[in-house]
């Protein structure tokens, strides 16, 4: 059963939504709701409405904004490699279900519902002609997060977090999801919020000593959460033969960055922790 619903906004233009989406248009107000949804894919409209909270650069500009109680990320689909010299953002159109936004949104919905830490799939939009299409996707923003790459440029990461990275890859592979571009920049580390830290502290304050001082039990700090990003072009694959090569791709990305940058807080002990997490 498809996990994505397709709504026609006008001829050759569609909005895609995961089933049970809170952004789903109301049947009695279908056209108005779809038009309102369509505006959220327009950066100039978001800017006019003062909804943009931040921007970031990647393959094109990425916009962070808030709407309908969601903190969102808007990203346009661009081509990469040599083909981008011919067309920056046009893709061959065959069928809506074969487009990049449909497939990415569908995969994210499956992984998100299965409990993997990935961005929440929210919506996508595409326009097509007889032969080509262009598209945008909106996913949930991940607050208090930093790329793994940026983090280990600045400081070392605890072995427990490397272990968690490996365990997250294993969870993705157990769901038979192959991330074809798994690299150090597609792993996000989310810091715990202040509420979690305060709660942990209150739980660890267990008693007072004879001097009336508070005693705090030793223990781990609130865990950093590991998220995986950028599932554009990724697939569900059968079998297990591809999984070791997929993991090795991530190791190569770490080694490539270490060879170019110094300091870069990654070594074989870090990788051993990743492998232990993957095998746990």
Task: State the oligomer.
Answer: single chain
* Radius of gyration using CA atoms only: 22 Å
Helix content: 25-40%
**Kindly state the mean pLDDT as a whole number?**
90
Strand content: 25-35%
Shape: globular
Distance between the termini: 33 Å
> Class by helix and strand content?
alpha+beta
SS field, number of helical segments: 8
The SSE string, one letter per element, is EEHHEEEEHEEEHHEEHEEEEHH
The number of E-state strands comes to 15
* Main sheet makeup: 8 strands, antiparallel
Unreliable sequence segments: 204-208, 210-219
3D structure, described in words:
It is built from 8 helices and 15 strands. The strands form 4 sheets. Strands 1, 2, 3, 4, 5, 6, 7 and 8 form an 8-stranded antiparallel beta sheet that branches. The two termini are about 35 Å apart.
Question: Topology, please?
Answer:
Blueprint: E1 4-10, E2 13-18, H1 30-39, H2 43-48, E3 52-58, E4 60-67, E5 70-76, E6 91-92, H3 100-113, E7 121-128, E8 132-140, E9 145-147, H4 148-154, H5 159-174, E10 177-178, E11 187-190, H6 194-204, E12 205-208, E13 214-216, E14 225-228, E15 235-236, H7 243-260, H8 268-279
Antiparallel strand pairs: 1-2, 2-7, 3-4, 4-5, 5-8, 6-8, 7-8, 9-11, 10-15, 11-14, 12-13
Helix pairs in contact: 5-8
């Amino acid at each position: 059963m498809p996990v994505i619903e397709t709504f026609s906004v006008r001829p050759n233009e569609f909005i895609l939504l995961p089933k049970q989406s809170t952004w789903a248009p109301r049947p009695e107000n279908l056209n108005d709701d779809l038009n309102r949804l369509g505006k959220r894919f327009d950066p100039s409209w978001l800017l006019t409405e003062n909804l943009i909270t931040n921007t970031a650069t990647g393959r094109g500009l990425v916009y962070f904004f808030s709407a309908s109680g969601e903190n969102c990320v808007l990203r346009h689909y661009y081509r990469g490699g040599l083909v981008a010299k011919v067309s920056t953002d046009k893709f061959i159109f065959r069928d809506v279900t074969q487009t990049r936004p449909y497939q990415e949104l569908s995969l994210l919905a499956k992984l998100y519902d299965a409990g993997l830490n990935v961005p929440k799939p929210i919506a996508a939009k595409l326009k097509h002609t007889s032969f080509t299409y262009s598209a945008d996707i909106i996913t949930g923003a991940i607050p208090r997060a930093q790329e793994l790459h940026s983090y280990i440029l600045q400081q070392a990461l605890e072995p427990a977090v490397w272990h968690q990275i490996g365990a997250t890859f294993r969870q993705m592979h157990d769901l038979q999801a192959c991330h074809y571009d798994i690299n150090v920049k597609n792993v996000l580390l989310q810091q715990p919020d202040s509420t979690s830290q305060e709660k942990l502290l209150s739980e660890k304050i267990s008693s007072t000593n004879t001097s009336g001082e508070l005693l705090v039990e030793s223990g781990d700090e609130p865990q950093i959460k590991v998220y995986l990003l950028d599932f554009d072009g990724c697939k569900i694959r059968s079998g297990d033969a591809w999984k070791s090569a997929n993991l090795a791709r991530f190791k190569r990305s770490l080694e490539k960055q270490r060879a170019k940058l110094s300091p870069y807080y990654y070594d074989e002990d870090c990788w051993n922790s990743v492998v232990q997490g993957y095998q746990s």
